[in-house]
Amino acid sequence: MFKKLFKQKKEENIVAPLNGKIVPIEEVPDPVFNQKMMGEGIAIVPEEGMVYSPVNGKIVQLAETKHAIGIVTDGGVEILIHIGLETVGLKGEGFASKVNVGEEVSAGQLLMEVDLEYIGEHASDTITPIVITNSAEGNKTYRFTSEKIAKAKETVIITAEDK
């Protein structure tokens, strides 16, 4: 009983993986994201094409087309960084991955270089959703920033806390 009473809640901060404008997930022009079908999240309209790890964790997914990266944090939060909308159709063009599946990463580590101009011309949008794919499990609560501008590697965009 005392363990539960005095157990400290554990928090994990998820920092911005990109520089740009922060947008609520509900404003992403794609129902898969704005209706939270994949989970809770936030989005960034990127200003430049460098994508950094928002957490310490492990790369568990790298789409063959390189448009999406999945990371599991040390605390079990599953994060999907989906670069742009309708970018799967680009078949990897405009993306240069700097990591591989199974690799341990540190917050701030470069994950991907992206040609935003190419994506802007050939995909429907450059907006990048950052989604907690296991948010529906209900063992954590999530707080989202009220900041409007993301500074990569610095701005805390999501805080995950054990319930």
TrEMBL record:
SUPFAM superfamilies: Duplicated hybrid motif (SSF51261). GO terms for biological process: phosphoenolpyruvate-dependent sugar phosphotransferase system. Keywords: Kinase, Phosphotransferase system, Sugar transport, Transferase, Transport. Residues 30-134 form the PTS EIIA type-1 domain. Gene3D superfamilies: Glucose Permease (Domain IIA). InterPro entries: Dup_hybrid_motif, PTS_EIIA_1_perm, PTS_EIIA_component. GO terms for molecular function: kinase activity. It is found in: Cytoplasm. This is PTS system glucose-specific IIA component. It comes from Oceanobacillus polygoni.
